Amino acid sequence: MIDSLTKKKLLIQGQWVETQEYKSLISPYSGEIIGEIPVASHEDLELAIQSAYKAKNIMAKMPAHQRAMILENLVTLLTERAEEASEIIAVEAAKPIGAARIEVTRTIQTYKFAAEEAKRINGETISLDAAPGGEGRLAYTIHEPIGVVGAITPFNFPMNLVAHKLGPAIASGNTIVLKPASQTPLSAFFIGELLQKAGLPDGALNIITGSGSVIGDKIVTDKRINMITFTGSPTVGINIRNKAGLKRVTLELGSNSAAIIDKGVDINKIIQRCVSGAFSFQGQVCISLQRIYVHEDEYEAFLSKFVTETKKLKLGDPRDSSTDVSALIHPSETERVIGWIQEAKSLGAKVVTGGLVEGGVLQPTVLVEVNPELKVSCQEVFGPVVIIDKFSSIDQAIDKVNDSRFGLQAGVYTGNIHTALDAVDKLHVGGVMINDIPTFRVDQMPYGGVKESGMGREGIKYAIEEMTELKLVVLNRN
Ligand code: NAP
């Protein structure tokens, strides 16, 4: 059973502290109250920042093997309590329990990679004598912790996306002020408890909950915070970038990811993967498959099989192991997505399946004949909606994929190596998945986008580069 019905506390300077104001946390599927969550005051936030600032030197001086050990301890503790962690995600985010279990398994992986990377944060030697005047000097670089990291996380992967901030920050000797999404604070508090047990020094992690615009603003602008690592919507991310001044900023933002299905691809082999890419966690995944472009020769077969598989998905309670699709994060989100589907219908699109709400759950929806200027195509739907369209040449398909404000990942199914490599060259995205959906991610790979999908990369090794300052040392032997 989840120990979440109690009043939660903020984590500041290694202590769980109450605040004056609380807000009920409502489960998106059942509508039940599942916790009372603190709304941090400005004073609480000030104490959290002070605490992270004070702990900076302790973490910076901690040897790598000790930082790695704390992360390894966390891996052990989380592995022991994996089912409890999955239930927390299922209840607070309405993530079907099967997907929640996968998230916990991935979170464990993320912290494992962080423990390993903590031991290999190496610089390089530089050949200064390659330049006239550089003779007789030895030069090398070191990576120093950046200091205090302000981490702001979204609701959709409440445990693993927190891990993508805490893992590399701890591995590289930083301290953290974490502000999790208001709808999913329980996952963050749970990890905070485990990290204390794992031996993380007091003050190295502070968890503050409350409104994003109030708390987030202070975290972004406070001079004692050296870096902001943000995952969330483009609107909030761009606002953060504009306010952060010279602070280091990593932004992992949204997308309307696409896949291309070339002529001659074995449709039967890929159909289930495409359906799961479109509808996993109700499409609330930053690399959810939102647009599918199929070669005209395969289009009818692909569409018919895709719809058949989509109709098999089971809607319902996220705690039920057989559920594939549950409620969106908030009823207002269901309303928004329905509005976008209705707009598309009124402007000529056809709903092949779905489009209705069943027991509070929006049906997985397939749209065709969608004008690319409609919201369901050119904006991030972040719901269980996919559009399927046809193309006659690969260049036309690539143009369709690139016709987007976003550029996170793209998928290309093809048996032709020339087509594959051509697509790699021409697609304007952070990652190209050949013979896979854009939704593929494992946690050590470099991950991030171009255009309005963000800046900087996550994936532990790459996040550590963002969370450290490169220092050059030159020894003059002349
Ligand atoms: P969101 O509304 O942007 O919220 C993200 C976080 O920002 C939350 O903690 C939120 O707090 C906080 N926030 C809100 N307003 C803020 C402000 N003015 N200043 C600072 N922080 C503020 O995003 P979401 O709805 O949780 O998540 C969905 C979005 O995340 C989608 O666009 C998705 O594509 C993107 N995403 C991207 C990736 C990636 O790696 N590229 C991964 C996952 C999700 P409150 O919850 O309190 O409002």
Give short descriptive properties of this protein.
478 residues; alpha/beta; Aldehyde Dehydrogenase, Chain A, domain 1; Aldehyde Dehydrogenase, Chain A, domain 2; 2 domains; 6-stranded mixed β-sheet; 22% strand; globular; binds NADP nicotinamide-adenine-dinucleotide phosphate
Concise description?
The chain is of the alpha/beta class and about 475 residues long.
Care to describe what's here?
By secondary structure, this protein is of the alpha/beta class. About 40% of the residues lie in helices and about 20% in strands. It contains 15 helices and 24 strands. The strands form 7 sheets. The protein has a 7-stranded mixed beta sheet with strand order 14-17-18-13-12-20-21, sandwiched between helices. The chain has a 6-stranded mixed beta sheet with strand order 9-8-7-10-11-23, sandwiched between helices. The protein has a 3-stranded antiparallel beta sheet with strand order 5-6-24. The longest helix has 21 residues, at about 95-115. It is globular and about 70 Å long. The protein starts with 9 loop residues before the first strand and ends with a strand. The structure holds NADP nicotinamide-adenine-dinucleotide phosphate. NADP nicotinamide-adenine-dinucleotide phosphate binds near residues 153, 161, 182 and 240.
N-end to C-end Cα span: 69 Å
Structural class: alpha/beta
Q: Major sheet: order of its strands?
A: 14-17-18-13-12-20-21
Average of pLDDT: 97
Tertiary shape = globular
